[in-house]
Amino acid sequence: RCVVLGLALATALAAQCTDPADDLLLVGTVERTLIEVAPPLSEQILEIPVERGQHVEVGDVLVRLDALLVEADLAAAQASVAGAQTQDEVALDEYHRVVSLHGSGVASQAQLDRARLARDEAGALLRSAMARMAVAQKRMNDTTVLAPVAGTVDQLPFAGDLPRDVALGHIRRLRLDALLAEGGREVADVR
To answer: Which of 24, 95, 141, 160 is the most interior residue, by most CB within 10 Å?
Structure first.
């Protein structure tokens, strides 16, 4: 790859030279930046919709992981949120009822305190359930591994394996290491 890329770069540079006396011999290597994309979950790989050597854009799907267990976690988290919302609404209604009764002297201070405590606990349970659902949703999103940059697919895992890195060659970031093989030529003359 480095040789082909180096030849392409040398050809592009040579195309700009019009006089053979202006030719400059460069000996070196051209390297591109490799970006390792690690799947954040350890679920089995179901699908790899790209091939080695294929160009991908930002956001293209690189790997799809098995989402069966993650989907179950998300469904359980959604059910917990629904139950916690119901508890929160009931506790809030009861609190308002006891506040009204306490204001008319029918409910005691202890009953008001218990209703307030039940309301606060139900609110905390709801926030906790919503946090668990957000985590489950993130894990669900993580079952699809996307390209963070445009580049060329360099290394891929195998379908059915546990996840490992996908390497993308980022062609927009090249590194050229070259030696000038011209005696007496000033570096300032090189453009």
So the answer is: 95
